[in-house]
Records
---
Amino acid sequence: MGQFTTAVIICGTVLAVVLAADSGSRRITAGRIAVPVLAAAAVAAACVRSFPTAGNDPSLHLAALGTGAICGLVAASLLSAHRDGAGHIRTTGGTGHAAVWVLLSALQILFAYGCEHWYGARMTRFTADYQLSGSEVLVSALAVMSLSAVVARTAVVVSRLRAVRAATAPSADGDGRENRQQ
């Protein structure tokens, strides 16, 4: 499988799962928290044939990890959280949130397409000059970036869940009884 095909599969899957989980007003459940991470991990494991670690490959993976995490945090910062009338905690994802995910996915796919069709010789020289393992390290870095973006998004959703719970939980006084104001 080429870089472009791999990018389309990984990014398309991650984009579809995250947008399905976060668009509109969605209740925060264990499945909603876990499914995007599990889907991203599964598609990355299915598409990445090797995880190169020679030369500067670990540095590229760390850069991809950081970039993905930042993008996931930016996107998730656009999710608002609240308790609905039934007492369920929900997040609301609008067009800004979706736009960040679409942009991240589109840029990754465009980069992979360019590596295969526009600047393949330059990427080959770049990977040699910077002691990278070639196209396999680019594919694995793409997977790391996508997975870290989803993990960062998930951390924010869990953080928002806890914050809303803490902000709307009844307080108790010293003897364990609820402290209600009259």
---
Amino acid sequence: MTSTAPKTIQKTVQIVHEPPRKDAGKAARAAELRAANINPRTGLATDYLNHFNEAIMLLEMIPDMPDCAEDFLTWQPLSYREHFAASNFRARELAIAAYDSADPAIRGEFDSITSAMTSILTAVGAAMRQARQDKTRATLAEQATGWVKPLVTLAGGIINGKGAKADVDYIMTH
């Protein structure tokens, strides 16, 4: 008996392309943010706090070295966007974009705290410009440090997703 089937059989393979999974895009974005030292849960970077830590460092030096008051008085407030636009942060555009797309409630809470820090530091700078004695500048510096340091810690908690709202939102969406 002879077979009428061809000796070579060709298979037709249909390649089915699955659409990219939504989770895959989120995971890639999260990895990109983590690699840039930006919290993927909040869209915020701790690098911005360096702007305030610099002012605190200068304030802490004033009681022992009154001439440092002049250095503090050169400190200028910068918004989150302004800080990153002017920085050498390697992923500054990503940091700004992540901030712009961050949950408005988290960003609002963060902006409120950084605004308070900016107001304190600006007011202390104005008072130091009016002060005539080093002792007065030292007192202002110590008071400002006591007010701003806890706010930096609070802002860091928000950046790192430690705020109550951030935790609830993360849990509810995952």
